[in-house]
Design a protein that fits this description.
This is UEV-domain-containing protein. The chain is an alpha+beta fold. Helices cover 23% and strands 29% of the residues. It contains 4 helices and 4 strands. 19% of the residues are buried. The model has no long low-confidence stretch (mean pLDDT 88).
Length: 134
């Protein structure tokens, strides 16, 4: 795609993947997610790791439409793209609204951090299918 045909979001994304080691892969995968899910938006923000380190990362956030037991839900999520992506999996969270409660389960802890099988088996999976597995 030429620079003249890129959307504003794609231009923003191209600029904000520059610090990433695998910027072309990050761009392609994030652009694919944004094309597939109109309710997901990119931003940059500071992420705090469990050990207290902070880093400015790309984050995909918004509402993920899911069907559960015959009912449709829009789940608020945040997917943080680490600087080692795609060598390392993204960091996924359910981000509850003020009237939501995150109940800890096999795949989600009380903070909302997700550890779905897809992420646990990251090295054997394709990168783009994460949102479909949530």
């Amino acid at each position: 795609m030429s620079a003249a045909t890129e959307s504003l979001a794609q231009k923003w994304l191209r600029q904000n993947v520059q610090p990433y080691a695998f910027k072309d892969a990050v761009y392609a995968h994030v652009d694919a997610v944004l094309s597939q899910f109109s309710t997901i938006r990119p931003k940059t923000d500071v992420y705090t790791y469990d050990d207290g380190r902070t880093q400015l990362l790309l984050c995909l956030h918004g509402l993920l439409p899911i069907a559960y037991r015959g009912t449709s839900y829009n789940i608020p999520i945040a997917i943080w793209i680490s600087r080692d992506y795609p060598r390392q999996p993204p960091i996924a969270y359910v981000v509850p609204t003020s009237d939501m409660l995150v109940r800890a389960s096999k795949y989600v802890d009380v903070s909302g951090r997700c550890s779905v099988e897809y992420l646990q088996n990251w090295q054997r999976k394709s990168e783009v299918g994460l949102l479909s597995s949530l």
